[in-house]
Amino acid sequence: MSIKAKELISLMNRWAPPSLAEKWDNPGLQVGSPETIVKRVMIALDVTKENVEYAIKHQVDMIISHHPLIFKPLYGINSEEPKGKLITSLLTNNIVSFAAHTNLDSAEEGVNDALAHVLKLTNCIGFVPVRQEVIYELSLHGYAQNESQLKELFSSFQMLLKHDSYQDMIHYSIKVQEGDINKVKEILIKGEEYIHSFEWHKLAHNGHLYTMGRIGELPHIMDGKDALQYIKNCLKIPVLKYSGNSNKRISKIAILGGSGADFAQMAKNIGADMYITGDVKYHQGQDAAASGLLIVDGGHFYTEHVIVPYLAQRLRREAIAKNWDIEWVEDPVAKDIFEYVI
């Protein structure tokens, strides 16, 4: 079954709600029309000259990237400048660009769960609070004769039958997470012939807590140097940079893909022996080591590129379940922007 880009965008927004994005971020549709029919989709860390050329040559219809193509506001598009060339190439070839950035960092099964998966960490929990969802109660009054239709419409939600239901009418209480509000509104429109009335109530207690970063346990306790080599091998990092005592025993590891050095002290406070992130500055490494934490700079690319195969696999499973006719491509030309002299 063929689908449009907007259906993939809707799916990604359910998995990584835009409300989780940092205020300075720009996730979402970057270039193109949501009405575009998509048959071949590339998953990438970045939108680059190299993967756009590949996409054009191999008839890719959509690129889902982690980093947004348009990060800062544009006041014009000059097709002779690097960014303008990319945008022009995408538009000319009818290729949609969509990004899930800091919202995918904080989402369940996002960047940090992908990183934990590659490192085979167990008993993982998040450690940097981002946002706690609000829970609402939908008080729904429907017609008793349509009870089966109502149950089918709201089959993905827990429906509590209220005691004030009576012969001709039936009253349900349905708890709805903030992220499911739009989905429920669509259901209410679809089932309006079965519904007499409804009311929304904001509940006092909070819903799901979204977090960045994870702390978990290695497959077994390792010496510091062995743990460093293990990380280097798992993430296929050519040169691994670290600061701190590499002779200590390592059991608990905190991770945060991308630029997470600001949270080193938080990682230390929750009991991490080692903290893996990217873009660590000199004094950040110095301070972490002084606190007794072994901090590892795995690089921005290597600590986030793990999301590409992880997300591609998740999308493949979803496409099969929904009978979507889509070919998924993991960016075959991706590489770290930095090279090393060894």
Automatic annotation (TrEMBL):
This chain belongs to the protein called GTP cyclohydrolase 1 type 2 homolog
What does the entry list as the binding residues for a divalent metal cation? H66, H67, D105, H300, E304
Q: Which GO terms describe its molecular function?
A: metal ion binding
Pfam families documented for this protein: DUF34_NIF3
Query: Which superkingdom does the taxonomy of this entry point to?
Result: Bacteria
Q: Which GO terms describe its cellular component?
A: cytoplasm
Instruction: Identify the keywords attached in UniProt to this record, alphabetized.
Output: Metal-binding
Q: Is Acetylation among the key words of this record? A: no
Q: Which InterPro entries match?
A: DUF34/NIF3, DUF34/NIF3_bac, DUF34/NIF3_sf
Q: Which family does it belong to?
A: Belongs to the GTP cyclohydrolase I type 2/NIF3 family.
